[in-house]
Amino acid sequence: xxxxxxxxxxxxxxxxxxxxxxxxxxxxxxxxxxxxxxxxxxxxxxxxxxxxxxxxxxxxxxxxxxxxxxxxxxxxxxxxxxxxxxxxxxxxxxxxxxxxxxxxxxxxxxxxxxxxxxxxxxxxxxxxxxxxxxxxxxxxxxxxxxxxxxxxxxxxxxxxxxxxxxxxxxxxxxxxxxxxxxxxxxxxxxxxxxxxxxxxxxxxxxxxxxxxxxxxxxxxxxxxxxxxxxxxxxxxxxxxxxxxxxxxxxxxxxxxxxxxxxx
Length: 263
Hints:
Blueprint: H1 3-29, E1 49-50, E2 57-58, H2 67-72, E3 104-109, H3 113-124, H4 131-142, E4 153-156, H5 161-167, H6 171-183, E5 191-193, H7 205-212, E6 216-218, E7 227-234, H8 239-250, E8 255-262
Parallel strand pairs: 3-8, 4-7, 7-8
Antiparallel strand pairs: 1-2, 5-6
Helix pairs in contact: 4-6
C-alpha cells in the first residue's frame, strides 16, 4: 500500500468521523423534530411508510418523521401512474380521459390533514427548513419509480416575480435542490412565468386550465430529447404541470416526469 493510498484512506476516515461528530453536535444544539407534529425525534422513533411501488416498504426514516406520523398520515401507497391519483386496491384511474404533456407523476401523500398543514407552513409561513425533511421523504418515494434512472436533470415550477418577492423564496426550488443532491442530478431553473396568473385556489378545473394557458416558457433550449423531472409542491388539477411540461417540450425535452409532495 502506497503512502498516497494510506493518506487518502486516512482523510476519508477523518471526514467520516468529523461528519458524525458535527451531526451529533447539531442534534444536541438543535434536536431534530418531526416536520408534521413537531415531536422530538430519536434514532429509534421512526416507523415505516408503505409505498406500493414494486412491493417496496420504505424505512430509514429515523431523522425525518416520527412513528405516529409515519403510520397515521395520508401517504399514497398506490396511485395512477399518470396523474398520481390515489387508488383503491384493484381499481385503475384513467385521469378521466385527460391528456397531459407529461408522461407520469409521483406524489408523496394526500393533500389533507397533517400533510396539508405542514405544506401550508412550508409554503406560506416562511418555514424554509421544512424543505430538507420533505425533500428527503419525496426522494424516498420517487427513488422507487422505474423511470427515475432515466431522468437527466431537475426543473422546479417557477413563481411569478411578484409572488417570489412577496414570499422571499420558491418552495419548489428548495425541494428541487434537495432532490438534486439526493439523486445526484443537476437542477436547472430554466422555466419562467410569462403570465402573472391569479391564484388557482377556488378555481374549477376548466378555470385552472384557462388561467395557466401560456403561462410558462423556457429561457434556454434543453438537451434534445432529454428526460426532465419537474418538481412542485402540490398537484391538484394538473394544469400547472401540464403547461410547464408543454413549455419544456417546446424547448426540446423528450419526456417529462412530475414529482410533488401532495395530490
